[in-house]
Amino acid sequence: MEYQEIQNRVKEILPEKRYEHTLRVVEVAKHLAKIHGANVEKAALAALVHDVCKPMDEVLMKKYVILHNLDVNLLDYPVEVLHGPVASAFIEEEFGVADEEVKLAVANHTFGRKHMTLLEKIIFIADYTDPQRKHPHLAEVTEVSQYDLDEAVRLAAKYTLVYLIDNDERIYPSLLDCYNYYNIKNYRVEFKEKNKDKILTDEKTITIRNKSEAHFKKGDLLEATTYEDPDTVFATLEVDLVKPVTRDTLTERYAKYYGVTLDELIDKLAKRYPEDDVLYVVMFHIIKK
Fold first, then answer.
1. Were both Cys, which of 4, 114, 186, 208 would link to 181 (CB 3.0–4.6 Å)?
2. What pTM was estimated for this model as a whole?
């Protein structure tokens, strides 16, 4: 079934306000896909069908869970949790959407999971940041999502957990797994393999990053990994200082830490972060080798 045909069917199924929400999520998803290098067509499709089962009767949803061998634990949860996983089966059955990446994004758009694909993160955040939502964290998560999807996922999962706890709602385990995974990942910092020994011998105690790592603060403990082996932690670092700088305010002192001239450092950072005017000096010391 072609996209326009699916859109027509979705419009028939959803109440007007839910359909309007869906169209806004489509636009946010397309925007996020463009800036984060994801497939825009898949993002639009997943966003278009993400809530298609929201109006479905709960009894019918639970039949889908059984008939399509979905997680049996879903039977203990309400429509708010059920509609995503059920929709992942429904869209293949009714619309012929068999793309596993799209189906995963639809299934997990409400509660997330650990190790989400790029498309899953985009739909999870696009739904959370519908511009007409009224929750108090909309602006924060929207801004962060423009440059750091993982941090946006962590924040959205965190705020969703707080909301559910405050309202005495049950928490589907995948949401907690999502938060735990991205919360730990949020306090990891990656280096080139060639810098590993320098960090272990205290020769390297500074790094300059962009706003995606501006949330670090003095006293934070960071797990150090390498770009080449991101799953292996080789040291624990304690942050001593986080200071915003521009290329104009960089000094010879920072260049000395990098072992280059000031002009070379400015050029290096311009190539690495061509769109960032403000960068962040992070100074640290190793506490576990």
1. 114
2. 0.73
pLDDT-derived band at 53, boundaries 50, 70, 90: very high
- Residue 3, amino acid: Y
| Model confidence pLDDT, tens digit, residues 92-112 | 999 999 999 999 999 999 999
Q: String of b and e for 82-111 (b: at least 16 CB within 10 Å)?
A: bbbbbbbbbbbebbebeeeebbbbbbbbbb
Q: Find the radius of gyration of the CA atoms of the chain.
A: 22
User: Please, what are the domains in the chain?
Assistant: 3-184 (1.10.3210.10), 188-288 (3.10.400.10)
